[in-house]
Write a structure and sequence with these properties.
Layout: H1 2-11, H2 15-26, H3 33-44, H4 51-71, H5 75-98, H6 103-141, E1 180-185, E2 189-195, H7 199-211, E3 216-220, E4 224-228, E5 234-241, E6 246-253, E7 259-260, E8 279-286, E9 289-295, H8 299-311, E10 316-320, E11 324-328, E12 334-341, E13 344-350
Helix pairs in contact: 2-6, 4-5, 4-6, 5-6
Amino acid sequence: MREFWVGINVILIGIPHVLYLFYRLIKPAPFNAAESKKAQYINNFTFPNDRESILEGLLYIRSTIAALCAKKTDRNTLQWVKLWKNKATYLFEKAEIMFRGDKIAHDAYAAVLKSEKKLKNVLLIKILIPSVLLVSFIFYASTSHMFGPKKADVTNTPNTFAWPTSGLALELPEPPTNVGKIRLNDDRELWLEMNDIRQSQFERYVQRCKNNGFTIESKKTGYSYEAYNEKGYFLSLFHHAYIIKDTLSLHIKAPLPMDNIMWPESDIAKLLPIPKSSYGYIESESLDGFVIYIGEMTKDDFGDYADACYEAGFKKNHTRSDKSFTGYDMEGNYVELQYMGNKTVSIKIQKP
């Protein structure tokens, strides 16, 4: 068998060996029992839905991936990095929905993508250098007639999806491919992950989404686009460029079912000033705290309300930006404000 493999590589100037090395790079490294258990725990672990926990998770993953890349460069490391990166992607997309534009979240996720890309480039170089040397040696050492490789009959059966004909999909143009997977599709959210999307296709799809009205409070980077339309639907696109293939994550979220609401009458609610707008949505409410979304609040209104919360006593360990405010009062009650975009503000208060 070994002689046959050597003979094939001599005849085809080392191309089978190069392809085999690429296959080794792409193929996930197998986990043992202990590693599989750890990987399953990472996949299934759920972070709390608050800004502090999400940011701590992203920062932890960033440090973990940096440590993995510094320790060793091999397929096993790449497999762990991919696992952690997928978790970081989930947290980053959640951060973009809950507190869009947060610099800490963006910087942490960008560092994760950079570390993964650097690791893949190093692995690719480790393959290319010996492969080039091998092909060169066989080419010059062989005196046999060189025949070109024949195309193999490979049946490609990628995962595909059918673009929905109802629901949130009606707000968007059909994507440029159906290769991928629908991860979530209900009345509130539609989330797809698509494969084999080039940068040019991503840019064209962004323009088509703009033509469909997703231009309100838009934000564009080299790998992402997010915006609202006039009806309040929020769209986020993330284009991940890899060595082997590119992917596009599409996430659209329906506007909250807001209406005129009554401000809670609990003792903890009395600690906060009542917003000027009574148009909103109460997500959760108890004697220990609540989460409320208030509509028809501009960024200036958000700034004024954050000032009012500060004056109401939430000054301890407080943080402030143009889109967020967090702080504690003297009794340890915690408040978190986020300007979500599209004149919507989230208000969260919680007892110690």
